[in-house]
Design brief:
This protein is an alpha/beta fold. The protein contains eleven helices and ten strands. Helix 4 packs across helix 11.
């Protein structure tokens, strides 16, 4: 028995040493951050900011690779099946994935809680209701009246079935007591293009996506889904001011690695991202996009993900939201 215990202790020691050595050698090559949504959207923009700084800190190239489609599930499946050595990461819209867990139960091709190792939560981003600039509605009450005069004809775009834009639009329609037409896209960016062209009339999208596209004058913001007005959009009314109290929705962004990634590598990445979001110019760039930066240890990030899943499961079931 003594020899058995010594053998087990030796194996544990070897595993610890191997993990430590692996972490010290990490990264040994290019690190890839998978962006599961279309280029130009909030997830893509944030990933490029973080990726640039991560490359500087790690001393290795960091590539941002877009793999959009299926409400972000294509990119998530790719990372879930990638080698768990810390060289492939997912820039995740955790709120969207939490919604997918309920709306697409058993159909996503991965389990958010089981197939990933949470690295960190990096920011929170509220939604903004924007419409085509030529739509005859300059406020939420006017939009609601217009929608009621055209039942089922007000087209809301989204980044895909089950995306945060989709769920937010459905919740908006129910709270405003209007019928909407949901039009899914392969990401927020193509939806914005059609919004500008008048093919759809509205979208509830992230402040990043909205701000990035307001300068052209072809879209206009009507409401922010926050309790207080945003510094970046000070003239845009809140949901409460627009007659929709309690309509507050924000997207949570985080970094995930494949399940089984060595804890030492996860801890290293967690420290790196915590340092990055604390850099003044990064905080400023995030704030300009309407993102509130944050950092937390992997264990807390895991708890926050489970809370997101539970929260949106309840919202979706109570609102009876389904993917047609």
């Amino acid at each position: 028995m003594k020899n058995t215990l010594l053998a087990r202790a030796a194996l544990c020691l070897c595993a610890i040493i191997a993990t430590s050595v692996g972490a010290q050698e990490y990264p040994s090559r290019t690190v890839t951050i998978i962006v599961p949504f279309a280029a130009g959207g909030a997830v893509d923009t944030l990933a490029r900011i973080l990726g640039q700084k991560l490359a500087e800190n790690l001393g290795k190239p960091v590539v941002v690779d877009g793999r959009p489609g299926d409400s972000g599930n294509i990119g998530a499946r790719f990372v879930a099946k990638a080698p768990n050595d810390g060289h492939t990461l997912l820039m995740s819209a955790l709120t969207t994935y939490s919604m997918n867990a309920t709306l697409m139960q058993g159909q996503t091709g991965y389990d958010l809680d089981r197939d990933f190792a949470p690295v960190s939560i990096v920011g929170y981003l509220p939604l903004v209701l924007i419409v085509n600039a030529y739509l005859p509605a300059n406020s939420v009450p006017e939009l609601i009246r217009l929608a009621k005069s055209r039942p089922g004809q007000l087209a809301f775009g989204s980044a895909g079935n089950g995306s945060i834009e989709h769920v937010a639009a459905e919740v908006f329609g129910r709270q405003a007591k209007i019928q909407i037409l949901h039009v899914p896209y392969r990401g927020a960016a193509p939806a914005i293009i059609d919004l500008m062209g008048g093919q759809i009339q509205a979208i509830l999208t992230t402040t990043t996506t909205a701000i990035n596209n307001l300068k052209g004058g072809r879209i206009k913001p009507l409401m922010v889904a926050t309790a207080e007005r945003l510094v970046t959009l000070p003239d845009v009314k809140t949901a409460r001011e627009s007659g929709l109290p309690g309509f507050e929705i924000a997207s949570t962004y985080g970094i995930l690695a494949p399940a089984g990634t060595p804890p030492a590598i996860v801890a290293r990445l967690n420290r790196e991202f915590a340092n990055i979001v604390a850099v003044p110019d990064v905080k400023t760039r995030f704030q300009q996009l309407g993102v509130e930066t944050t950092a937390m240890p992997p264990e807390e990030a895991g708890r926050r993900i489970r809370l997101e899943i539970d929260k949106w499961n309840k919202v979706i079931r109570e609102a009876n939201i389904r993917i047609e």
